[in-house]
Amino acid sequence: MRAWPAGGRDRGSARRAEVAALEQGIRFRTIFLILMGTILAIAATDVLTGTVGLVRETGSRPLTPAEQARYIQDDIARRWHAWPADLVFPVELQYIGLGRVQQYARRVGVAPEAPCAAGTDAAVGSVLAEYGCRTLLRATYVDQTSTFAVTVGIAVLGDEERRVAASAQLAVDDRVGVRPVAFPGTATELFGAAQRQRNGWVAVGPYIVFSTAGYTDGRTRESVSPEEILHSELWPTAQAIAGRIARALGDEPSAVPQCTQGNVC
C-alpha cells in the first residue's frame, strides 16, 4: 500500500490550528462585546439618572413652607446693606405729636458706618461684641419744631438667634445705649452724651434698633426734672421714629416667590 505524503498531514494540522484560533477569536470578541455592552448600559443609566436629577433640580417646583420662611429671613437680613441709605433711614418720618396732630421728623444726617462698640456705651458695646455684632449704622433726626434730637442706631447681628441672645443680656437702664451723633451747623450740634435724656431699643430680625433723645438747646439730663421727662413729647417722638425704622427693616417682603423659579411651577 502506498503511504500518504507528509505534506498532507501538515496541511490538516494547520487547518485545525486555524479553526481553533478562529473559534478563540470569536469567543474573545463575544466577551469583548458583552463587556462593552455592559459598560455602555451602565453609562447610559448614569447619564439618564443624572439628566433626570438635573431636570428635577433645575426645574421649577413649589417652595416648601420652610424654604419660604428662609427666603423671608434672608431678605430681611440683607436689607442693612442692600437698601440705599434713604430707605434704611428715610429723609422724613411721620409721627403723632401732642393733640394727636400728625407731624414729620426730619433726618439731619447719616453717620459713617462704625464698629458696634465704638458707637455705643461700654455696657452695651461689650454685649454686642460678645455676640458678634457686625456693624452699627446711625442717623440723627429732629422733630418738626427742631426742639428734639433723636439718634437712631441699628446694630447688625449675624442672625436672629444671636440677636435674641444679645438682647437678653442688655441691661435695663435708660442711661446707656447708642451714642448720639451731632452734625455741626445744624440744630443737632449741641446734642452730645450729656444731653441724652433717655435711651431705648427695639429688636427685629437680626437687628437691634437703638434710640436716644435729647433737647437741641443743649440742656443736660441732670437739668431736667424726672416729671418733665415722663410727661413730655420727647420720648414718644423718639419711640415713634425708631419704631418706624425698625418696622420697615423687619416687615415681610411684599411678594414671596411661590416656586423655585418665580411664581410658575
Describe this structure in words.
It is a single chain. The protein is of the alpha+beta class and 265 residues long. It contains eight helices and six strands, in the order ααααββαββαββαα. It has helices at 6-58, 65-77, 79-82, 85-88, 122-130, 160-169, 226-231, 234-250; strands at 92-96, 102-110, 135-142, 148-156, 196-204, 207-215. Strands 1-2-3-4-6-5 form a six-stranded antiparallel β-sheet, with helices on both faces. A hairpin with a 2-residue loop joins β5 (196-204) and β6 (207-215). The model has no long low-confidence stretch (mean pLDDT 87).
What's the helix and strand layout?
Layout: H1 6-58, H2 65-77, H3 79-82, H4 85-88, E1 92-96, E2 102-110, H5 122-130, E3 135-142, E4 148-156, H6 160-169, E5 196-204, E6 207-215, H7 226-231, H8 234-250
Antiparallel strand pairs: 1-2, 2-3, 3-4, 4-6, 5-6
Give the overall average pLDDT.
87
Distance between the termini: 96 Å
Q: Strand count, sense and closure of the main sheet?
A: 6 strands, antiparallel
Query: Can you give the helix content as a percent range?
Result: 40-55%
* Overall 3D form: rod-shaped
* Helical segment count: 8
Structural class by SSE content: alpha+beta
Q: Unreliable segments (pLDDT under 50, ≥5 consecutive)?
A: none
What is the tally of beta strands? 6
Sequence of secondary-structure elements: HHHHEEHEEHEEHH
Radius of gyration: 38 Å
Spatial order of the strands forming the largest sheet? 1-2-3-4-6-5
Strand percentage lies at 15-25%
Can you describe this structure in just a few lines?
The protein has helices spanning 6-58, 65-77, 79-82, 85-88, 122-130, 160-169, 226-231, 234-250; strands spanning 92-96, 102-110, 135-142, 148-156, 196-204, 207-215.
